[in-house]
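Repro:
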Amino acid sequence: MKVTTDACALGAWAPVEQARRILDIGTGSGLLALFAAQRATQAQVDAIELEPQAAAQAKANFDASPFSTRLQLFEGDILTFEPTQGYDAILCNPPFFSDSTLNSCERLRQARHDTQLSLTALLAAVRRLLLPAGRAYLLLPTDAALQLTPSLAQHGLQLRSRLHLISQPGDTPHRCILGLSPAAGELREDSLTLYSAHPIHSREAGRLFYDYYTRLRCEAVEYTR
């Protein structure tokens, strides 16, 4: 599956720099784990992926990266994953389509639809794996985020941050990045407009993505590395 700007926003925005142990749930190609390894230079980054071909692709990407010694791929189910230690930070871009027509491709169905990993089951796994002072960051459609928020407390999680992603000026938010923690505290809320006019990134998005993109079209500026 192609890399999306929304997933890159999660990888570039989630504040993981001080984390020592990071987990990427459902890593796919390994995108979020690679973002985390680049940003948290002292962290061990684990990634788990259920689908064998995706797991193999992620492992190849990890091995080819400058961060290979700090990246570890686990092929398996997050619901039965039993690491020896908990995590300071968890990243996840989960399957979120529910009660919709299933994709005819089994691998795409697994990645996009919540038939094998419901959001309720994901929250239970996050709470089990997250350290008491840790944070988890989930990327969800805005409507799914709104539906999920009231059920956080029953899973022992608190909403601590919410970033609204907006495609371009005048649009309503289409995605939210939820920051969750077992510890209660103040809620920080913000928004990010990704494009001034697609495919030109806004200056705000350009600043966020600059360290990670090899070529970036940003309003009146074009960066090439």
